Automatic annotation (TrEMBL):
UniProt source species: Halorubrum distributum JCM 10247
Key word Transmembrane helix present: yes
Source organism, top-level taxon: Archaea
UniProtKB keywords: Membrane, Transmembrane, Transmembrane helix
Transmembrane segments: 161-183
Chain positions covered by the region annotation Disordered: 1-37
Record protein name field: Uncharacterized protein
Listed Acidic residues bias regions: 25-37
């Protein structure tokens, strides 16, 4: 057997002929804030939420007046998204067809509505508009006119208090203008 205790091969070390340089950490000023820029945090968070699974998780289903509000959140986020549907009235499901289609797309029976909480709903995230639930889950029609009507109705529902206030103030101003015109 060969004796391995002594190697005849020499090991060569290569030395860097350039003078030693300061490391990047030593080159930074001491008063530099080591925090992360808020814009970088926001962009990274939006990209992570957008690319994670493109899904929202149903967290709560509740009644809001004559509507059903389905609250959802991203898998790893704290933002919430709410979809509103017409609630059943007068013992008939005809008024809540969109909600029934949402339940059907989610694979939940109207009799087992408790199973809706925790369901993942496909969605996309737009930095300007926020979360948007997939059209199959929103029961959106291909008709542009129906989509415009639904969007207008949703906008009116969202800003109903402001619209009422604007109508009251506008009516009072119109009344004052008529009085001034009559007696001027």
């Amino acid at each position: 057997m060969a004796d391995r205790s002594g190697d005849d091969a020499e090991t060569a070390t290569v030395e860097d002929p350039s003078p030693p340089r300061e490391t990047d950490a030593e080159a930074l000023p001491d008063d530099l804030d080591a925090g992360v820029d808020e814009d970088v945090k926001r962009r990274l968070r939006e990209a992570y939420l957008n690319d994670e699974e493109n899904a929202l998780i149903v967290t709560r289903v509740r009644s809001v007046g004559d509507r059903v509000a389905v609250e959802m959140r991203p898998p790893h986020g704290d933002a919430t998204h709410t979809e509103r549907f017409d609630a059943p009235r007068d013992g008939s499901l005809r008024e809540s067809e969109e909600f029934l289609e949402f339940l059907e797309a989610a694979g939940v029976s109207p009799l087992d509505i408790d199973e809706l909480v925790g369901t993942r709903v496909p969605a996309t995230y737009d930095p300007e508009a926020g979360w948007r639930v997939d059209a199959a889950y929103r029961a959106e029609s291909e008709s542009i006119g129906e989509n415009r009507f639904a969007a207008a109705r949703e906008w009116l529902w969202t800003y109903k208090a402001w619209l009422l206030a604007a109508l009251l103030v506008g009516g009072e101003l119109a009344f004052v203008a008529v009085i001034i015109l009559l007696y001027a």
